[in-house]
Write a structure and sequence with these properties.
heterodimer; A: Phosphoribosyl-aminoimidazole Synthetase, Chain A, domain 2; Phosphoribosyl-aminoimidazole Synthetase, Chain A, domain 2; seven-stranded mixed sheet; 35 strands; disordered N terminus; B: 23% strand
Chain lengths: 805, 247
């Protein structure tokens, strides 16, 4: 064999002696190299080199293992064995992922064969759109980079998830994006920020929005959906979720490596930007992070990615791709690992085009420079691929090959700098954790009915509810020419909608994209949050016209400190609620991601984010006539509500405004909800629904107002007709955020048939639209208890963010 | 077989509205071809009656929008586009394409710079057609809507020039209200021949009723949007010319 053993010194890599270190020495080595590995992990590595390799590791190998085993890449907390004490007493959970995500999806897949076409394995989850095409969706977080460098962090967050889609199957076409942010309130008093170098929420918001804008718009992918949460707990750890949906022929979903293929890199060059991003994002932030870890944030170049995207789609159409994946966290190490870890193969680092000379072996292998894709292709396809790369002006370089050895060998200028037994490489020790959470006993607050009119204005004018228009308009949400239900629509083009809908070329089906997050609920009752979040996401898709039996979900978690048993306990309870809801609705999880260590050591101690669970989803809409908006379309039509209003005010915007905590959080009745969603879908299919809006943040008062923002007609609602659970006062009727409710507008001629359809559900006509005025009026006991000009409500709602963005 | 008018779309790195623009051209009756700039030479233009520069961010638009695309086009084919127009061809520039045509000097002098708000703006706008017999706009009513999506759409021109374009019928389209700070609210320009049109709004995004933000929008009752009418107008113009060609 012509290989040089790693103990010969080389300028590109070095050997790291670990075999003689004691546990303390291993720990300090992990710290000094910033490996983010525990002492237990280091011992495992030591044993491996002692017993199996019988040599010292190279720096390339150690860095590679650290990346692979990082929380970011390996999701070790979701794989951990957890002793939990919570809503179901004491129990041992053999992996959150296995128990609450994978098992749920597998059971649903048994009942719905042929719907999920790929989940958990590839870069994104796939569902069937029609006989020929599939849609896929992936969401990622880019929290730590966005905290340190908001523009670049968010920019590359979106760029990264777009590459996930380009690397899904044999290369899916990105067709829509979404973004969800959690920020501190824009009006945060700078004096209250208790740490140096933390960027004010306003700076974070402006940077993040522009980062997403400049990547998404330049890529020509419509950003159609999103949400923003404002809460002081996100000041130190803002959250940035970016998601992209893709379209792909079903026959191009499956990909398989084999020996004898060429491995090629396409797109951007490799540099020192984005070194150790995966390990960086697996640590907590502190002031030092802001100073030291700048190089962990990558630099985005969307045009480089656009060229690579054009190349990939063209190459896939010509059937020239055997395997493709993106260079995400871990760079070449994870991409090559994914491709070559089973069949085996060689990677030659000196062939990789570099941004700068003099890079060390591990830097090239681990760099997370953006805009790079790695493909495995047949040798005979090379000339055609080179031609396509020339046409789209993207750089294509052969960097390796696959063989039958089962071992990934990384070479640099003739030196074998990394040789890992791949069956061991991905095998991080299972962690053992303990957790516990009990919901505090609820407090019955008295809600005063004296100021309803002002209360409605306060809720509409709150950061939680106000219009996101200034931000939405920064995103090109109509490029590709397929966005039918836009984020803002209605007769004046500026009223909020639920899910967004894109048409699909060459199909009669359409895709709805929706999302939900309710972190405020989870502060008190994470189990209820898990249930309610899935419900709200599913409902938003159904409201916009998706078939309730053709919905798939993604789970994205952001958590503070998982080593704190209570914070971990809240995560466990969230997972339980989310899993129960998904299973009841038959909505499988097809992909997801988690982000831990979202806490910050301030001068006053550690501040964690609330357990944040973002549920996003894609749904199939059977045909264009089912697409349903949320804005009133007629005068003299009827307004009806589906679902029951409950007195639980916990987590509501209203309770927050009134500064009342620990109220009971709404529970979700899955059976009643699913049955009403199916009935609703039947009504939509019979073209009986003019418009529909979910009743969520802000409650019925906000939902009715938002429907009326099309300014087509006035609206009168009688609260006495509202289906309720128990004895509710008017504050609860107007502002409770009970799950599973939908407000609809229909023609009076259709109401008999609609009532027949909803005979098994909580359903009531509660009002009508009016041509004689343009006000929103609520009546109770025959009296007008609330009467506002819609114009002035809309003005308040529209101007919440305008002073800040 | 009847010969369909042929449209050629030139694609730069960063052009991203080519697929839907091609779809719009096909819907209107054209045969269309998307040609990456790396493949373009003077001969490429021969088979086309219409050349389209569609929306996007050519080369990222990191220097003035359209500037690098202009330089690359001139390097590759010199003044071939001018000769194409003089030879009876038609040129359409949408959004980034409008910016490029302006930089190439194929449209009246001026520039498209940052919107006064300093922001990207994605919304629908009301437009007024200010020319009576433009080959691209014949089939459109005097007032109609299209979506815009741009950061650099504010048209500026030398002192007094914009007013002159308005008087001379070169300002083919204006916004009904000020949306981006454009001088004289200019949204689209044509040249003296009438065979070149550049506009910031995106006609390819309004092919059908269902594209409109208002579910209850109806045009002529044929399910078609105003953007379609624009592509149909230029199709009808060119198809009419082909039909009258001898042989």
């Amino acid at each position: 064999m012509d290989k040089k053993l790693p103990d010969q010194p080389s300028s590109n890599y070095r050997e790291i002696p670990i075999r003689d270190l004691d546990p303390e020495g291993l720990g300090s080595l992990s710290d000094s190299m910033k490996l983010s590995l525990s002492v237990e992990d280091m011992i495992e590595i030591q044993v491996y080199y002692e017993a199996e390799m019988r040599r010292e590791p190279t720096d390339v190998e150690l860095e590679c293992i650290a990346q692979t085993w990082s929380e970011h890449c390996k999701h070790r907390i979701f794989g951990a064995r957890i002793e939990h004490s919570g809503s179901e007493g004491e129990e041992v959970i053999d992996g959150l992922f296995k128990t609450y995500i994978k098992a749920v999806t597998e059971r649903i897949m048994k009942n719905k064969p042929d719907f999920v076409l790929g989940c958990f394995v590839d870069n994104a989850g796939f569902i069937r759109l029609d006989d020929e095409q599939a849609i896929c969706l992936k969401l990622e977080t880019h929290n730590h980079p966005s905290a340190i460098e908001p523009y670049a962090g968010a920019n590359t967050g979106l760029g990264g998830v777009i590459r996930d889609i380009l690397g899904a199957g044999k290369g899916a076409k990105p067709i829509a994006s979404c973004d969800v942010f959690c920020f501190g309130p824009p009006d945060t008093d700078p004096q209250t920020i208790k740490a140096d170098d933390v960027i004010h929420p306003l700076g974070i918001m402006r940077g993040v929005v522009r980062g997403v804008r400049d990547y998404g718009n330049r890529m020509g992918i419509p950003t159609i959906s999103g949400a923003i949460q404002f809460d002081p707990s996100y000041i130190y750890n803002p959250l940035v979720f970016c998601g992209t949906a893709g379209l792909i022929p079903i026959t191009d979903i499956d990909k398989e490596m084999s020996s004898g293929l060429k491995v090629i890199a396409v797109g951007g060059r490799t540099g020192r930007d984005g070194l150790k991003g995966a390990t960086f994002s697996s640590m907590a932030l502190d002031t030092e992070s802001h100073e030291e870890d700048q190089q962990a944030v990558q630099i985005g170049n969307p045009i480089e990615e656009k060229k690579a995207a054009d190349f990939i789609i063209e190459a896939r159409k010509k059937d020239l791709i055997v395997f493709v994946t993106d260079c995400g966290a871990g760079g070449f190490s994870s991409a090559a690992g994914e491709m070559l870890s089973e069949v085996g193969g060689n990677l030659y680092l000196e062939r990789a085009p570099l941004k700068e000379p003099g890079m060390m072996s591990w830097e090239i292998f681990l760099s997370e420079s953006q805009e790079r894709m790695v493909l495995a292709v047949k040798e005979e396809s090379m000339s055609q691929l080179i031609e396509i790369a020339q046409i789209y002006e993207t750089e294509l370089t052969e960097i390796g090959d696959s063989d039958e050895s089962g071992i990934l060998k990384v070479w640099h200028n003739g030196d074998l700098v990394c040789e890992l037994d791949n069956s061991r490489l991905h095998d991080a020790p299972v962690r053992h954790l303990s957790s516990g959470y009990q919901v505090p006993s609820g407090i019955d607050h008295d809600w005063s009915e004296d100021t309803l009119s002002d209360d409605l204005l306060s809720v509409l004018g709150d950061f939680a509810v106000g219009s996101r228009e200034p931000i939405i308009r920064e995103y090109d949400h109509e490029v590709q020419g397929n966005t039918l239900l836009k984020p803002l629509a209605g007769a004046e083009g500026d009223a909020p909608q639920d899910a967004s809908v894109v048409r699909i070329d060459d199909s009669e089906k359409l895709m709805a994209m929706g999302l939900a997050l309710l972190p405020e609920w989870g502060k008190t009752d994470p189990l209820a949050m898990g249930k309610g979040t899935v419900d709200e996401c599913v409902r938003s898709l159904v409201v916009s016209g998706a078939n309730p039996d053709k919905i798939a979900l993604l789970d994205n978690f952001c958590v503070g400190n998982p080593d704190n048993p209570e914070e971990l306990g809240m995560l466990v309870e969230t997972c339980k609620g989310m899993a129960a809801a998904a299973e009841a609705y038959g909505a499988p999880f097809v992909s997801g991601k988690d982000s831990f260590y979202n806490y910050f050591e301030t001068d006053d101690g550690a501040v964690s984010i609330p357990t944040t669970c973002l549920i996003s989803g894609m749904g199939v809409i059977e045909n264009e006539s089912n697409v349903t908006g949320s804005s009133v379309r007629r005068d003299n039509s009827l307004i009806a509500v589906i679902g029951t209003t409950d007195s639980a005010m916990g987590g509501s915007v209203y309770a927050r405004i009134k500064d009342r905590t620990r109220a009971k959080v709404p529970d979700t009745n899955f059976d009643a909800a699913l049955s009403s969603y199916r009935s609703y879908h039947l009504a939509v299919s019979e073209s009986l629904i003019l418009a529909a809006h979910d009743v969520s943040e802000g409650g019925l008062g906000v939902s009715a107002a938002e429907m009326a923002f099309s300014m087509v007609a006035g609206m009168e609602i009688d609260l006495d007709s509202l289906p309720v659970n128990g004895d509710l006062n008017n504050v609860e009727k107007l502002f409770a955020e009970s799950s599973s409710r939908i407000l609809i507008e229909c023609e009076s001629e259709s109401i008999d048939r609609i009532q027949e359809i909803f005979s098994e559900s909580a359903f009531a006509v509660i009002g009508k639209t009016e041509s004689s005025h343009k006000s929103l009026r609520f009546k109770s006991d025959g009296m007008n208890i609330l009467d506002n000009e819609i114009e002035s409500l809309k003005e308040t709602w529209k101007n919440v963010l305008t002073p800040y963005y | 077989m009847e010969k369909r008018p042929h449209a050629l779309l030139l694609k730069f790195p960063g052009t991203n509205c080519d697929a839907e623009t091609s779809r719009a051209l096909e819907e209107a009756g054209f045969s269309s071809e998307i040609l990456p700039i790396a493949c373009v030479d003077e001969g490429s233009l021969e088979s086309a009656q219409l050349i389209v520069l569609s929306g996007g961010f050519s080369y990222g638009d990191y220097v003035m929008a359209g500037r690098l695309a202009q330089l690359e086009l001139e390097r590759r084919i010199g003044d071939a586009l001018t000769r194409f127009r003089d030879g009876g061809g038609y040129l359409l520039g949408i959004c980034n394409g409008f910016q490029i045509l302006t930089k190439l000097g194929l449209l009246p002098e001026g520039s498209l710079i940052n919107n006064t708000s300093g922001r990207f703006i994605c919304r629908w706008v009301k437009l007024e057609r200010r020319v009576d017999d433009n080959p691209f706009l014949r089939g459109l009513p005097e007032n109609f809507e299209l979506p815009i999506a741009h950061a650099e759409g504010r048209f500026v021109a030398p002192e007094g020039a914009a007013e002159k374009y308005m008087d001379e019928g070169l300002a083919a389209l204006v916004y009904e209200e000020d949306v981006n700070g454009s001088t004289s609210r200019i949204a689209g320009l044509t040249d003296n021949s009438g065979r070149v049109l550049g506009l910031m709004p995106h006609p390819e995004r309004f092919l059908w009723d269902s594209h409109h933000y208002d579910r209850d929008w109806v045009g002529d009752g044929d399910g078609r949007g105003s953007g379609y009418q624009m592509f149909k107008s230029i199709y009808n113009t060119i198809a009419g010319e082909i039909a009258h060609e001898p042989g």
